[in-house]
Amino acid sequence: MRALLIGASGCFGTEFLNITKKISKKIAVKHYPSKKLNILKFRDLKKKINKLKPNVIINSSAIVGINQCETSYEKAFSVNSIGALNLAKICKLKKIILVQTSTHAVFDGVNNSFYNEKSEPKPNNVYSGTKYLSEIFVKSICKRHYIIRFPTLFGMRKNKLLGFVDKVILSLKSNKTLKIAKDRIDTPTYAKDAAKQLIQILIQRKPYGTYHLTNSGKVSYLDFVKYIKLLVNSKSKIIPVKDSFFVSKGYKPLKTSLKSTKLNSMRNWKLAMKEYIAGIK
Question: In the 3-class helix/strand/coil scheme, how is 213-248 assigned residue by residue?
């Protein structure tokens, strides 16, 4: 299987490349960071895809973050939505499988239970709206598709951007005082585990459609950070606050824990985080 990975320097892209190099001999991956393969230039994109002749395209490029997307909404819609539209058109024409990554943010965050693949998306900010629109474009245009939704991811990354977990770990190692939301609920997931599961979906040729790739369990951000504090032996003081304490330019969904009704459960997030921390010490 010949795969083209777009967005190779982010958390998921980095871990996907690492895993395919180590454990998968059935997938040959060509990869490009988003800056070197512009998914907004349709003709150039089509020419490059024609040259590479992939069987699968994995689109992991995105403008992420509520504040960034609210501020730069035109760029967010272009990259997150129109980029996916362009890829869907090309994949339909060339009969290529398209894997479009998405997010738990497409849900409204009012559900006390888990959101699964049958749950109804209700995006409520620019970021979630652009990602949900990418899902609609891909599903409407390209029959051979997988929509892959992630919760908050942690893992290695080639780029210099820091995610929530990266920032927390750095602060804890410096013994800084942290204010953490006690009412925000998530299913933090190791990008390496998600990458392994996507590889199995592709190799096993699972039915096309939407899948949630997530470690098992759910936890408040407060308890999540307290667990990381134990793992890194930090002396940081952690102050519980409501998520509304952190000013946002857009609506923030509070409870966005995911689970899958289509796939076997992955290991608990605690085991995944323990392995990740051990690997970066």
Answer: CCCECCEEHHHHHHHHHHHCCCCCCEEEECHHHCCC
